[in-house]
Amino acid sequence: MRYHKSVPYLFILPMLLGLILFRFGPILGSFLISFTEWRGTRLPTFIGLANYTEILGSDIFWEVLVNTLIFALLFVPGTMLLGLVLALLANQKLRGIAFFRGVYYLPAITSMVAVALVWNWIFASRFGILNFVLRSYLGITDPPRWLSDSDTALYVLVIVSIWKSAGLPMLVYLAGLKGIPQVLYESARIDGASGWQMFRHITLPVLTPVTFFILIITLFDAFGTFEVTFAMTQGGPLNASTTLPFYIYQNSFQFARYGYASALAYVLMIVVIILTVFNFRIRTRWVQQELF
Amino acid sequence: MTTQLPVPNQPTRDFVPQVSRVISLISRYGLLLFVAFLMAFPFIWMVLTTFKSPSYLFAIPPTFFPDKVFEEGATWASIFSSYVPLFTEHNFILYTRNSFVVAFLAAIGQLFTSSLAGFAFARLQFWGSRALFGILLATALVPIEVTIIPEFLLAITVFDPIFEFFGTKWIDSLLPLIVPSFFVGTTGTFLLREFFSQIPRELEEAAIIDGASVFGIYRYIYLPLSMPAMVTLFLLAFISNWNALLRAVIYVKSAEIRTLPIGLMAFQDEYTAQWDLLLSGSVVTIAPLIIVYIFMQRYIVEGIATTGLKG
Question: A67 near A240, Cβ under 8 Å?
């Protein structure tokens, strides 16, 4: 193709505009704002590192950070595992398997607000169906109070989030499974390998690049907890289910402490970057081959 | 002399594999159904409950039976009695319209922005293309919480005054819900770039000989060939914008601008005890997406399988 050298820039213009206005600009802006005290409608005042020192000294922050890490630690393996299981199930050559694939992906396309209501009901301490089953069929006379209990509220969010997020890993694993050459399985079967052995020594290793990809996107999702927290617990009871993204929302749009919230947001970003870089670094230890 | 003796029918030896095959089938479908039940249980419950009379809502033990459908003298109005008020007395038609406008425009915008950019990265040479692409991927690492505060402050201090000057609003309109997604499409650009890269360059040559411009090649060759990927992207963007909560929570102030998720939350706050209406509201929020999803399911599953990963 022959074209004037300015033509490509026209093609990327909308994207560039968006990036400047809604990514680069705000990223820089957030950085600058994090060094100010900016409350509500008052003007910002420069306060240096005061926000960051306040964060490090804040008990609530550390509690929130621990919650966030616990959430991620449970959510990431849980979602990946469920996604893999669903993909294995949905990969069978059965009639109507597309229906099941559709059902398994269903939670991923729904609005969190809509499903939060039902989950609130399922986990309701007195008339929810979970405690009903626990009391009537499993004989547990005093089941946990789930969302009203500061010990369990966060874990309810984990469960709901895993349920909702496993669809995308399932799809990606499905694509990965379909890419495994059947020859490998056939020669293994000739050698007398069992199903489980084939899974451990063929399926899993060949899937490691896909698994890495899913790990990264799931790690991302683990920090997108605003919606589930907002819809189900609003962070309660008493910050027990508050994770960092929700805490940032509270500080910026409920307490209107824009400076402090921006500093919190940068802390969040640093955490995400550290975890992502860490995973890229140890990638070579367990990923078997190149995906792209 | 060897003669081939006719082998008699061996019913016993044929019978057992048949039975075990049936058992295997039953157990496989059984497992699939069980898992499907676990995944879909909230929806099943939700829908069934909207067809129960209010007295059964909090029954202990919880019931499944949608008695309104089967009771004596049931009419369409009585069966859907928990849905009708949403549209006639509450603003759910409005909320649905708002959600649709936001999701549709944002998704179209994403297609527009991502396909242009993806094409440029895949097929055009320009200074800074590799660096820019790398930066693009890097910005995907940035959580939305980092960008949303300045975005909001920008909206208050810059966009809103400008729009007010021209007689409309920025905040408390649907614009801030649409525009950011319209112009930023990281995953879309990435996916389409991959997809475009795999289209054979020979196809361009015939068009070049005919004197086609770059934009013409993009429009008449690359776009049509990437329809599956584009449809997939559109659907994913539509769904994600329909469900988007954060921007809606921040920018929506008045009832007329509420999208379905916000409208549903406001409704829940106001009518906390009327669970039959609340659940119907949830169903209404989810139902349009399910319809979209059912029709286009093959695109989504196939789309990700073919565009995302090679080999």
Answer: yes
